[in-house]
Amino acid sequence: MSLAAALPGLEVVGQSVVRLARPHPGFLFGSGKIKELHQQLKANDAELVLIDGPLTPVQQRNLEKEWGVKILDRTGLILEIFSDRARTREGVLQVEMAALSYQRTRLVRAWTHLERQRGGLGFVGGPGETQIEADRRAIDDQLTRIKRQLAKVVKTRELHRAARAKVPFPVVALVGYTNAGKSTLFNHMTGAEVMAEDMLFATLDPTMRGVELPSGQNVILSDTVGFISDLPTQLVASFRATLEEVLGANLIVHVRDISHPESAKQAADVEAILKELGVPRETTRIEVWNKTDLLDEDERHARETEAERRDGVFTISALTGAGIDTLLDAIEGALVEPHLNETLHLGFGEGRKRAWLFDHGVVEGEDQGEDGWHIAVTWTQRQKQEYAAF
Questions:
Q1: How far apart are CA 190 and CA 246, in angstroms?
Q2: Over the stretch 124-154, which tens digit does the pLDDT of each residue have?
Q3: How far apart are CA 120 and CA 113, in angstroms?
């Protein structure tokens, strides 16, 4: 239901749960159930049927022919939602690539006349080329073009990432199930105006902003596309470039809608996708139980008590701001980097480097020898990288 509600212009007139002992290879449902559902569709004047699960191209073609309506399976519906939400050029390209990959496997639905062949002059399609082959080749050409364009986007991201490394602010990535409240939290923390609506996939395009923590430390906060159970493989592949910011994050903040009845299952889905993406297990994580404002007083108190007993779990309401200050302190604490003790040798001609060390307050002691200074320093890995780039 929530997926259907996320697509503008749809009016849901009915829904059914159909239990299948074994899916029919050609129609998904048995003949009796197909007739029963057909009568329901006619009674409600339905023009579109959504099936919350995967359909093979043959099943989709046969059901559309049997019922005389348009059919979308779970992947098709999510692609429709994504195409409606994408705003940036990158987002549009990623959705287009995912849609083409999906369509390529379903050409049988559009072209049932596989025996139909088309001749040509060579540049349209060679003699004897079937229509489905020509269409598949056209899709492959489009996919190649989009991949080239996305490669440029990835290159730009790498350049931006390299530029940030020279002024290495920690990256904090917000992740979570779709509609968990990540964008509302992002807006509250940054003062930005990222689209934040009570709908699935309100955020598709990645957004990054600088945030100053209470101590004055600067971090980069990244808002990401919401995850969902059974996320189609085409989308995982297409949005990998976007989600690379999560892979390189210093801290992952997992935002949960704690008011949702399936919050625990949603959290497990998010963790599964993070694992599939290859997010390192050692990446520090914080879990945020959001939307406490939607709980009654007893439930909210119970959740707050439970969170206090668990390490790295915090309750907030991104809408009202409750708990945000505590969360910011926790983020700051999680980003405290381990310090390294090292001894550096600098020649007398490297006075600028010596001055840098003193200016940044990392010097613990210094001895002067015949060939220069021996300086004992205590610094973080980030400060060490800054010094190396100096």
A1: 18
A2: 444 445 667 777 888 888 888 888 887 887 6
A3: 18
Buried b / exposed e over 110-128, threshold 16 CB at 10 Å, is ebeeeeeeeeeeeeebeee
Same domain assignment for residues 225 and 117: no
What the block records as the tokens of 304 is 């707050």
Specify the DSSP class assigned to residue 292.
G
Tell me the C-alpha distance between 379 and 390, whole Å.
15
Amino acid at 203: T
Residue whose C-alpha is closest to residue 187's, from 303, 310, 321? 321
Of the CA atoms within 13 Å of residue 219, those in its CB half-sphere come to 26
Q: Helix (H, G, I), strand (E, B), or coil: what is residue 128?
A: coil
Angle at the Cα of 156 from the Cα atoms of 151 and 159, rounded to 5 degrees: 130
Q: For residue 298, what pLDDT is reported?
A: 95
**pLDDT higher than 50, residue 202:** no
322 and 345 inside one domain: no
Residue where the block lists tokens 């829904």: 15
Instruction: Say whether 148 sits in a helix, a strand or coil.
Output: helix
CA atoms within 13 A on the CB side of 375: 21
**Contact yes or no for 315/304 (Cβ under 8 A):** yes
**Could you tell me if 240 and 99 lie in one domain?**
no
| Structural domains in the chain (count) | 4
Same domain, 250 and 314: yes
On whether both 350 and 304 belong to a single domain, the answer is no
Mark whether 347 and 216 lie in a shared domain: no
Please calculate the CA angle 76-82-88 and round it to the nearest 5 degrees.
Answer: 150
Bridge partners for 344 per DSSP:
375
Write down the pTM of the prediction: 0.65
Residues 258 and 311 in one domain: yes
Residues 6+ apart with CB under 8 A from 200: 2, 3, 5, 6, 81, 178, 179, 226, 228
Give pLDDT tens digits for 230-256.
666 666 655 665 566 677 788 999 999
